[in-house]
Amino acid sequence: MQQPMVSYIALGSNLSNPVRQLKKALLAMDQINKTYLLAYSSFYQSAPMGPKDQPAYINAVAKIHTRLTPLELLDKLQAIENQQGRERKEHWGARTIDLDIVLYDHTIMQTERLTLPHYGAKQRDFVLTPLAEISPELVFPDGESISQALTNCAHYNLEKVELDKIKD
Questions:
Q1: Which of 12, 21, 60, 67 sits a CA distance of 20 to 30 A from 96?
Q2: What is the pLDDT of residues 8-56, one digit of tens each?
């Protein structure tokens, strides 16, 4: 049996009540067999990375323990996306939910389906800020600290979302 691994999952949504979409995805992730939700960050609003004619995104990062392999985990996350109505029409386009494996322990891999660490994670404050919130001492497999990565990333007008002020 595979040893449990710590993995970080980035969540993002900008359609169909994004706060509810993230909450629903977190609950679904906690139901994945051989996987345990350990923590999740605050929710953050960010400007869209792709086409600008779409709503702002709500983002978060979850920390999980899993005994699934990276590709098994990817399959489970994509099943959650499909259950929540994810449609892949436009690169970086609007979506009900996006679940990306940012890190899987210290695994470095590149396949046709999955690149670890996530190829763009260190360039995006909407991934790094929530990641730093739940794991401030995190070090990437290449030795760069989360704080170093945060100083070098692109910024997308990130704002913490006060969930108690949002009806979902």
A1: 67
A2: 999 999 999 999 999 999 999 999 999 999 999 999 999 988 777 889 9
From the candidates 95, 124, 125, 142, give the one annotated as an active-site residue: 95
Identify the active-site residue in 75, 98, 105, 164: 98
pTM of this structure: 0.93
Active-site option among 30, 100, 142, 164: 100
Both tokens of 104, joined, read: 């899987």
Establish whether 88 is a catalytic residue: no
Task: For residues 22 and 14, give the distance between their C-alpha atoms in angstroms, rounded to a whole number.
Answer: 10
Q: Looking at 20, 30, 67, 86, which residue is catalytic?
A: 86
Active-site annotation holds for 125? no
CA 102-23-104 angle, 5° bins: 20
Structural domain boundaries enclosing 131: 5-165
Total number of domains constituting the chain: 1
Q: Is 112 exposed, middle or buried (0-12, 13-18, 19+ CB in 10 A)?
A: exposed
Query: pLDDT tens across 117-168, in order?
Result: 999 899 999 999 999 999 999 999 999 999 999 999 888 889 999 876 665 5
CATH of the domain at 108: 3.30.70.560
